[in-house]
Amino acid sequence: MGRKSKSGGAEPKRARSTPSIQNRKARHDYFILESLEAGIALKGCEVKSVREGKVQIHESYVRIKDGEAWLVGCHISPYANQNTFEPYYPDRERKLLMHRRQIAKLYAQIKEKGLTLLPLKLYFARGKVKLEVGLGKGKKLYDKREDMKSREANREMDRAMKDR
Q: Residue 62: which domain range?
């Protein structure tokens, strides 16, 4: 039974805090032009590992082949309490669940403009694992330096305003 609150009604269940895995390297190395949400096809034990935050997406990318989108290079560690004898491959390619028109549009942009599809964030939404995919254009070294200069200038302005 749920606890009773002071007003007499049952208290709502608290949501578990689930981790949001971010790919900071992607935003550092690429200009993100567009982003969209995609589902990801996982096994049950992989979902539990994602809930524990045992995922690495910083070296991964999205490949489109045969009209389907695949996440390549994502490492999901095996779940500790897994109770099956089938082999587990932590670095296998995982299918992304997107509409066919979205995939076709992304494929055209990749081929025409020479852009890259990158995973930006892995998170839970309404009980399902979702992946934020970004369409990125590579930065040059001088672009990264400009970003660092502007960040430093913003910090200096914030410090000056805080001191006043």
A: 21-151
